[in-house]
């Protein structure tokens, strides 16, 4: 169920995030800002099943709205234009982004102690921000 993901989540750490951004093809200047940014992730869902995910920081705020299992066009915080789909897999909220023949997967899980953990995978690079 998506309900357990609804709320405001503050990033505590993001180990190896620079390597992940490099694998995505993000330029040096944008990576420098990304490495210093600790955005809040705000997740809401309306009565019709429309989910809103907002990444909010002093640098940039990005918001996407979607329904599970329905692909949509996303413009990411680093300005990639992707075809994205969110699914629920084994209780985790999984986001798959495809662009220019590439794919990245962001798998979000709520732990038993109430933390949101996002595992980001791009090729051989995997990060676990908390």
UniProtKB/TrEMBL annotation:
GO terms for molecular function: lipid binding. InterPro entries: Calycin, Fatty_acid-bd, ILBP, Lipocln_cytosolic_FA-bd_dom. Keywords: Transport. Residues 7-24 form the Cytosolic fatty-acid binding proteins domain. SUPFAM superfamilies: Lipocalins. The keyword Transport applies. The keyword Transport applies. Belongs to the calycin superfamily. Fatty-acid binding protein (FABP) family. PANTHER family: FATTY ACID BINDING PROTEIN (PTHR11955). This is Fatty acid binding protein 4a. It comes from Oncorhynchus mykiss.
């Amino acid at each position: 169920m998506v309900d357990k993901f609804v709320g405001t989540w503050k990033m505590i750490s993001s180990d190896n995030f620079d390597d992940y951004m490099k694998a995505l093809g993000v330029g040096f200047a944008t990576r420098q800002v990304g490495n210093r940014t600790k955005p809040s992730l705000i997740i809401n869902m309306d009565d019709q099943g429309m989910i809103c995910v907002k990444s909010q920081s002093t640098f940039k705020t990005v918001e996407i709205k979607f329904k599970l299992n329905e692909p949509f066009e996303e413009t990411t915080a680093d300005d990639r234009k992707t075809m994205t789909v969110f699914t629920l897999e084994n209780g985790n909220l999984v986001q798959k982004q495809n662009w220019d023949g590439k794919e990245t997967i962001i798998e979000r899980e709520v732990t038993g102690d109430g933390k949101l953990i996002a595992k980001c995978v791009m090729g051989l690079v995997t990060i676990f921000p908390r």
